[in-house]
Amino acid sequence: MKHISVPKIDLSSVKNYNTIDLIDTDFAILDNINNIPLFDYPSIIETTVFALCLKGNCKITINLNEYNICPNDMILLMPNQIVMLCEKSDDVSGLFIVVSKNFSNEILPSTEDMLSVFFYAKESPKTTLNPNEIKCLKEYHSFLRNKVKETENIYRKEIIRILLKSLFYEIANITKKKIPEKSIRKSRKTEVFESFLKTVATHYKQQRSVTFYADKLYLTPKYLSCVIKEISGKSAGEWIDEQVILAAKALLKSSNMTIQEISVELNFANQSFFGKYFKQHTGISPKAYRKI
C-alpha cells in the first residue's frame, strides 16, 4: 500500500524561481508571492518564515486556525506548522524571508528568555506593527537582499548569518512587547517544553504515549506532564493529540488517500479506531470532515 505524507515545503521547493534570491537551500528573500504556487493546500513547512504585509490582504490558516492578514501585519511561522493560503488580493505584496530548519537552529537565540518569545509566536503568529517597527524591518530586508546579491563576496553567507541573528533579535524584541505579562515564562523548564515539541513533531505518527516521550527525554512521565502543563497550560497528551489531529485533517483535505490508508499512515490499529479517535477530538467523523 502506498502511503502519502502531508505535503512538506522547504527551500528546495522554490529554488527554480528566478524572482527569489537564494543562498543554497538555507536562505531565501523575496517581495512577491503572486507567482509562486505554494500553500494552496495544507502543507507542513520545514522552514522558519518571516513575512510583513505592506499592501493588499490575504487569508491563511496556520495549524488550521484562520488569520486575516492586512497591511502592517507581521507573520512568523515555525518549522512543522501546517499552513495553507486560502485567498489573497491581486495587489498583495510585502517582505518575505525564509530560513531553513538547520540554518535557523544555528542562528536562533536559545536563551530561556528568548524561548518564551518564540513559544508565544508559535501560538500567536500574527502581530500588527507600528511605523517605527515596520521601518526597522524594511531596513533589514533591504540590507539582506543587497548582501545576497553580492555573489562575489566570499564571506556572504557568514554576513547573512550575522544579519539574520540580529533580525531575529529585533523580531523577538517587537514580539515580546506584545506579550501579555502573564504569558511570559521565566522557568528553565521551557527547554524541556521545546525538546518535547520537537520530539512530538518527529514521532507523532508512531507514538501517542506520554511515557514514550518521557523516556526519549530521560524524564519520568509525571515530571514531564507537570512541566508541560505548567509551561503551556495544556497537558502533554493534549499536545500529542493536537499534532495527530492536525496531520489527519491535512491528509483528509489535501490527499486522495482513503480513510483506511490515513489510519495506517498515522499508525492506528484499524480504521474504526482512527474514526473514534478523530470524532472524540473533533466532534465529527473523518468522512464528514472530508465533505466540509
Q: Main β-sheet, in a few words?
A: 6 strands, antiparallel
Rg on CA atoms, Å: 20 Å
Which series of helices and strands comes N to C? EEEEEEEEEEHHEHHHHHHHHH
At the fold tier of CATH, the topology name of the largest domain is Jelly Rolls
Number of domains: 2
What's the average pLDDT? 83
Structural class category? alpha+beta
The strand count comes to 11
Q: Largest sheet, order of strands side by side?
A: 2-3-10-5-8-11
Which of globular, elongated, flat, extended, rod-shaped describes the shape?
globular
Q: Which CATH class of the largest domain? A: Mainly Beta
Q: Strand percentage, roughly?
A: 15-25%
What low-confidence regions span 5 or more consecutive residues with pLDDT below 50?
A: 1-5
Percent helix: 40-55%
Separation of the first and last Cα atoms = 27 Å
CATH architecture of the largest domain: Sandwich
Question: Count of helices?
Answer: 11
CATH homologous superfamily (4th level) name of the largest domain: Regulatory protein AraC
SSE layout and pairings?
Blueprint: E1 8-9, E2 21-23, E3 27-30, E4 43-45, E5 47-55, E6 58-62, E7 65-69, E8 73-77, E9 82-88, E10 93-100, H1 101-107, H2 112-123, E11 126-128, H3 131-148, H4 156-178, H5 190-203, H6 210-216, H7 221-232, H8 236-254, H9 259-265, H10 271-282, H11 286-291
Parallel strand pairs: 1-4
Antiparallel strand pairs: 2-3, 3-10, 4-9, 5-8, 5-10, 6-7, 6-9, 8-11
Helix pairs in contact: 2-4, 3-4, 5-7, 5-8, 6-7, 9-10
